[in-house]
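Bumping my old thread because nobody answered last time. Still need a sequence for this structure:
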């Protein structure tokens, strides 16, 4: 279980980094009356799924068997 947990944690961490960078790059901004207004047009589902996979990896790593 520790090996599977480690693999899932590493995959989740890599997914968070990759999809997080994508989400940050997908934000748009515009200028309105001198204010810079930013909004995100990113798809957050892969980032949430990667976090969930990483969390499952931590739980499996801690599971004693």
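Sorry it took so long. Here it is:
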């Amino acid at each position: 279980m520790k090996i599977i947990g480690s693999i899932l944690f590493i995959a989740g961490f890599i997914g968070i980094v990759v999809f997080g960078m994508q989400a940050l790059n997908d934000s748009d901004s515009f200028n309105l009356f001198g204010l810079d207004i930013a909004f995100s047009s990113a798809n957050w589902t892969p980032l949430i799924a990667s976090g969930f996979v990483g969390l499952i990896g931590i739980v499996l790593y801690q599971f004693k068997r």
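The helical segments are 2-25, 45-62. Let me know if any region looks off to you.
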